[in-house]
Amino acid sequence: MEIRLFGKEYGVYFQSEKIVLKSKKAEHILYYLILNYKRKAFVSEILNVFFEGYDESYSRKNLNTLLYMLRKGLNLTKDSLKIDRNVVYLDVSKLKIDYILFQKLMDKSPSKKQGMKLQRFIKVSFWKA
Fold first, then answer.
1. Beta-bridge partners for 84
2. pTM for the model
3. CA 72 to chain centre
4. How many helices (H) and strands (E) does the chain have?
């Protein structure tokens, strides 16, 4: 499974084929969890961002439904994407995500070799035709 957040061809891919999720909101929640993978994403925060103005019980039911859709659509286990003690948890360790690769390259101490890797990453990710 590969998730691309950079470039023209952003999206979720499996064996080079783009996976189209049934819900744009589910896809947006997935991207939100990826962008916030270094910290806890609280249920209340996600409800405020994605379900502003809706009743809390309605919002929670919809969040659970959207997480279920993500698990099914991406073939993730319940342990890979879950709500645990009011925190939404996405295990990114088994996913190839360009944003996380970019973050890891940025976090490493700068060196000529790392700079070359970062330049290649940017060239490949952003300048695909």
1. 87
2. 0.82
3. 15
4. 5, 7
